Amino acid sequence: MQISQSNRHLIFIILWYSFLFCYQYTEACNLQDQQSLLAFSEPLTSPLGPLKWSTSSDCCSSWEGIGCDDNGRITRLWIPGRELTGYISSSLGNLTSLSQLNISYNFLTGVLPAGVFSSLSSLDIVDISSNRLRGNLSASLPLGSNLTSFNASNNELTGHFPSSICKTSPLLKTLDFSRNFFNGEIPVGLGRCSNLEVFRADCNYLSGELPGDIYSLQSLVVLSLAANNISGTIQGILSLTNLKIIELYGNYFTGEIPQDIAKLSKLEQLLLHLNNFSGSIPASLMNCTQLIKLTLRGYNLQGYTSALDFSRLVQLQILDIGHNNFTGNLPQSLFSCKSLTAIGVASNRLSGEISPNIVELKSLSFLCLSGNKFINVFDTIRILLGCKNLETLILSNNYYDETLPAEKSFIGPAEFTNLQVLALGGCNFRGRFPEWLLHIKSLGVLDLSYNQITGRIPDWFGTLPSLFYLDLSVNRLSGEFALPLNSFPALKSEGSAHKLSQSNLKLPYNIQVN
Length: 514
Ligand SMILES: *[C@@H]1O[C@H](CO)[C@@H](O)[C@H](O)[C@H]1NC(C)=O
Ligand SMILES: *[C@@H]1O[C@H](CO)[C@@H](O)[C@H](O)[C@H]1NC(C)=O
Ligand SMILES: *[C@@H]1O[C@H](CO)[C@@H](O)[C@H](O)[C@H]1NC(C)=O
Ligand SMILES: *[C@@H]1O[C@H](CO)[C@@H](O)[C@H](O)[C@H]1NC(C)=O
Ligand SMILES: *[C@@H]1O[C@H](CO)[C@@H](O)[C@H](O)[C@H]1NC(C)=O
Ligand SMILES: *[C@@H]1O[C@H](CO)[C@@H](O)[C@H](O)[C@H]1NC(C)=O
Ligand SMILES: *[C@@H]1O[C@H](CO)[C@@H](O)[C@H](O)[C@H]1NC(C)=O
Ligand SMILES: *[C@@H]1O[C@H](CO)[C@@H](O)[C@H](O)[C@H]1NC(C)=O
Ligand SMILES: *[C@@H]1O[C@H](CO)[C@@H](O)[C@H](O)[C@H]1NC(C)=O
Prior knowledge:
Blueprint: H1 5-23, H2 31-41, H3 59-62, E1 66-68, E2 74-78, E3 85-87, E4 100-102, E5 107-109, E6 125-127, E7 134-136, E8 149-151, E9 156-158, H4 165-168, E10 174-176, E11 183-185, E12 198-200, E13 205-209, E14 222-224, E15 229-232, E16 245-247, E17 252-253, E18 269-271, E19 278-279, E20 293-295, E21 300-304, E22 318-320, E23 325-328, E24 342-344, E25 349-352, E26 366-368, E27 373-374, H5 377-384, E28 392-394, E29 421-423, E30 445-447, E31 454-455, E32 469-471, E33 476-477, H6 489-492
Parallel strand pairs: 2-4, 3-5, 4-6, 6-8, 7-9, 8-10, 10-12, 11-13, 12-14, 13-15, 14-16, 15-17, 16-18, 18-20, 19-21, 20-22, 21-23, 22-24, 23-25, 24-26, 25-27, 26-28, 28-29, 29-30, 30-32, 31-33
Antiparallel strand pairs: 1-2
Bound molecules: 2-acetamido-2-deoxy-beta-D-glucopyranose (9 copies).
One 2-acetamido-2-deoxy-beta-D-glucopyranose is lined by residues 205, 207, 229.
């Protein structure tokens, strides 16, 4: 096809205008801002080479991590994960149009310069997380009234918790102060951040009770204060009806889990383990139908588990109620929670036989029943062969004085194909060495300690390809444990521990039985 002369002319005009359009908004970089950036970069070094900030090019259009507004003022300084070492220069405080600052995942040290943020009134996003910044954060505040997101997590910041940040920055939606050294009580003040959606301050040294104004944060979706020293009851959180994630584990909370917890109808994760709660699991918790993770391990909860109706928790993936004082069997209703991947009920007073219905949990990869009064190990293992995805099976300290099946044919060669951790310690099992282990080629960790297993360890045993942790102590095994030179191939190959897939570490467990 021929393009006529006039059409060519038209095309030229279109190209010319699009050229103009693309470039008309890029002003040259403001010279003072450029000076401030260069001063900021002076104390910084990186094994990846210096920041690509060359004075021979325009800082708005070609400097690494820099963005400008229409007037050539610098609005964005975004250099995370650049392996930068050095300190933060006070010249940062001269970039007065800055709205987005991300220097996370570097190796920056030293204290933040006093008041460095106080002239940066346009700041919207500040991410200084995952560095090694020290000192009193309060002395570097305020951060301006437009701030919506502040992440200072994973540094070495000290001093009292800076609740006052909400006085000057009331529009905050995200506040992450986790993994620092803040101490003392959380002062009143956070209540002014009425838009706050995410509040994290886990892994600090915070103590005392939660300040009452936290319970007015109606927009809050994530509340994480895990691994601190906080006490008091959690009754107040019932007013935070938008909460999806509550992480309060590893504190000194007391009292009962609130009876009307179902008011938190959006709850997806309730992680309360390692506190000092008492009482029982309220029936209303079983109405939190969005629950995905529920951990109540390690305090004095009691009650008859069979009375709990889990059947509405169809999203539940992780359940840990270990180290409490529960009685009864695993509740039948649990087997209708088809999403379950991990169940931990260690160290309670549960009893009875495992129900064949457990095989309905097709995704189950972690099961820990240790330290209860379950019976019938023969049927238990036969039934669990039906859980094809099982990777970790901890049955220790149950089945007292029963006989552990020994025959090779007890399981078939194509069963337990994903099993990596098997603990059968402390059961006082009778019988010969379980020959059926021969079939479990994926086995990495085996605990048979504290039993009464007799006879010889079979010759094939040292050839299990993946085994790297073995405890046969305190048994009545005889003969020599003479292994061929090629025994335990996984013990010899470096990094075999890493082969243990992450998923079987879903819940903490203790392989040692004594
Ligand atoms: C900062 O950059 C890191 C690395 O790219 C990113 O993961 C993080 O989300 C950024 N921070 C914000 C607040 O966007
Ligand atoms: C900030 O800018 C002022 C003048 O605008 C200048 O005097 C001062 O030295 C600058 N500070 C830093 C640390 O660059
Ligand atoms: C805060 O944000 C608003 C809306 O984006 C803007 O008009 C205002 O200039 C900003 N304030 C500052 C101090 O930058
Ligand atoms: C804050 O930054 C850390 C990494 O430095 C990240 O893991 C965390 O998710 C961030 N917090 C929020 C609320 O995005
Ligand atoms: C931290 O800084 C704030 C504000 O400058 C000050 O009031 C407070 O006393 C300081 N705290 C410590 C422990 O130095
Ligand atoms: C945490 O609280 C416990 C008991 O109340 C106390 O012994 C301990 O010193 C506290 N630790 C910190 C870091 O505050
Ligand atoms: C835990 O609660 C019990 C009573 O319920 C109390 O005796 C004990 O001192 C509490 N422990 C801590 C560390 O607060
Ligand atoms: C759970 O929800 C059902 C239906 O919404 C309601 O009838 C029942 O009373 C609730 N149970 C508890 C203990 O809140
Ligand atoms: C467990 O419950 C029994 C009775 O139900 C009680 O005697 C025992 O003290 C409780 N144990 C703990 C640690 O609370």
